[in-house]
Amino acid sequence: MQPYTGFASVYDMFMDNVPYEEWAEYICDLLRRHQINSGLVLELGCGTGNLTRQLAAKGYDMIGVDNSEEMLSIARDKSENSDDSILYLCQDMREFELYGTVSAAISVCDSMNYILTEEDLLKVFRLVNNYLDPKGIFIFDLDTQYAYQEVLGDHTIAENREEGSFIWENTYYEQEMINEVNLTLFIPEQDDSFQSAKMNNDNAGLFRRYEETHYRRAYTIDTMKRLIEEAGMEWITVYDAYTVEEPKEDSERVYIIAREKWQADKLYVNKE
């Protein structure tokens, strides 16, 4: 099964410990540091739209791009009865298309780690550069090699809840710098038998099993800087996540900031 298909229906439940409000404050602070106080902002790998909606509430006009229709369906449902005016697009970030340029682009939740080759990552960066306004800002997070090798490694993470259970088995391939995750989900069937079992505090309800495999790649900071510059952008800085300090040897996640650098051969995109 493709990543984030079966997982989509329970993604928000198992990610309820993620401090999206704090993430939004941090990203807004970084945007403001670079004079992006309003305007159109693109989020790549927006998932179910949790951060997208937080940034929309802070005054940014949001576009969310994700390649999982299942995740986007949930995101659209959240916005159905609101006036956030978020545009969600089901597109692969390696070949996404917009109607015009944006003031900034962001990407969180290790979405860039899911791009497994330098060639594909360069495609993403070139597209971001193409769709950024002059001097527009690109902010994204990245899981570090330390996180995959020393923290996740070959560990297994499991969680059991009334609403469902998961087993998250990690394997890290050091030479390839690839983290493989085999995700097994047990999601209860929402039928009469399950509801009856739940009311009687019984475990006899039916559960459907889903299996997904996720691959994420670790990249060095030097590699990211080289690819950013090869894509035509200006490298600004890298921070230890949720700070404005330099990364440490044991940093598990970093934030990278780049800026659009106008070039004569840059593809012009009309705003409509």
TrEMBL record:
Domain of life: Bacteria
Pfam families for this protein: Methyltransf_25
Alphabetical keyword list: Methyltransferase, Transferase
GO biological processes: methylation
Domain Methyltransferase span(s) in chain numbering: 41-136
Single annotated GO MF: methyltransferase activity
Protein name as it appears in the record: Class I SAM-dependent methyltransferase
Species name: Variimorphobacter saccharofermentans
